[in-house]
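Can anyone check this?
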Amino acid sequence: MTVNYSERMSTLTPMYTRILLATDGAASSQLAAQHAIALADVSGAQLLALRVVPPYASTYLDGGMALTAADIENMEQQWKHEAMESLLAIKSLAQRQQVRVKPLVVMADEVASTVVQVAKRHKCDLIVMASHGRRGLKRLLMGSETQEVLALARTPVLVVRA
């Protein structure tokens, strides 16, 4: 008996309809972007590319320097612009495979909880993120947004080791 898989796949409900790619714009997260694009291509899903940009640290204890409100606004606008540029590069890469991408930049203090909230708000059925593979003291000091998303999300999370 011969099975025509392409015919059979066309009758199945797609596994994913909306995939959230959460990226920090680092070169190491490009592998996660490639995986998310490939999954969206195979499943016919829409890809939502998210970059969470933390606002400027408002106090000296948080790492901030004394700047004027206008300087802070300009700096945050520049960060948002750079974030959108990185997402547009992902969109351009995805368009070569006819994958629809909606870029989204959100400014928020809490990266992981924002990723989870955006996934819920946009009814995403998968979150794709990179893990930078930090261990020991570096992981303890720098934290792991991916680890926190895994702990908070009810949506399945695909972690791509970069």
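Reply from J.R.: I decoded it. The first strand starts at residue 18 and ends at 22.
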